[in-house]
Amino acid sequence: xxxxxxxxxxxxxxxxxxxxxxxxxxxxxxxxxxxxxxxxxxxxxxxxxxxxxxxxxxxxxxxxxxxxxxxxxxxxxxxxxxxxxxxxxxxxxxxxxxxxxxxxxxxxxxxxxxxxxxxxxxxxxxxxxxxxxxxxxxxxxxxxxxxxxxxxxxxxxxxxxxxxxxxxxxxxxxxxxxxxxxxxxxxxxxxxxxxxxxxxxxxxxxxxxxxxxxxxxxxxxxxxxxxxxxxxxxxxxxxxxxxxxxxxxxxxxxxxxxxxxxxxxxxxxxxxxxxxxxxxxxxxxxxxxxxxxxxxxxxxxxxxxxxxxxxxxxxxxxxxxxxxxxxxxxxxxxxxx
Length: 337
What we know:
By secondary structure, this protein is α/β, with parallel strands linked by helices. It contains 13 helices and ten strands. Strands 3-8-5-9-7 form a five-stranded mixed sheet. A three-stranded mixed sheet has the order 4-10-6. A two-stranded parallel sheet has the order 1-2. The radius of gyration is 21 Å and the shape is globular. The mean pLDDT is 95.
């Protein structure tokens, strides 16, 4: 966590009030919060000794997670982020699925919530193949094995055996760890619709761009580490954009016109139609689960336009991040962030 004074008490008290009876401890790794987060956690730890604050001066998630893995006393290690919302049965359902499936990591879909128009667009964009690349962990109805899950519930001994989270990759570290689990144990990452949590996406387009730029960088590093197991969807934005650029260059240098303007216009139109389709298909889900503000939800056109913009930003930023890391490796021979 980092600067989560508005949410951390709700999250901790929610887990303490869980119907799961074997909760050993709640470890909170703080990346140097400057608000009242640390004071809130300290007060909660005085009331319940299972609440323990851990310093994470490196700030990034992988470092904090590894510190918690090292200190954890429980046989099961359940990851939680300080800004999410969790179903009342999140803890018990996670442990139950871990036990009944025999998987090495279990989790649910990455469900989204929104409180403004930008978040609405992002929450809807990830429902489209253009926004999620066909990722199984983005489908709330999917049950079965996949290559990663949102957050995760592990056996602590497994996390220690494989060396915890990769600290050289400060994003996409969860996907990279799951690929290492699959390399070690075979098909072992299970997605269950009974494990429910919700996540607020970035609240501005600028922050969305930065997030997906980092995702692109992280995906490149993961692909280098696990070239045979890395999902194809992580390469799609890069491959598509490279082909499109090459096509444009060919149309520019060749004497014969290759209709590049028409093709780009068609691609843009297809993405726009898909954005409107996604808004229509998910209209009930948006009302019942996604929209979480007291003010009136954005209208149909506003949601569709923000969905369209979000898809474009996700793909372009991911491509630029992936390309940046590729060029960095090419010219500096660096395999780290």
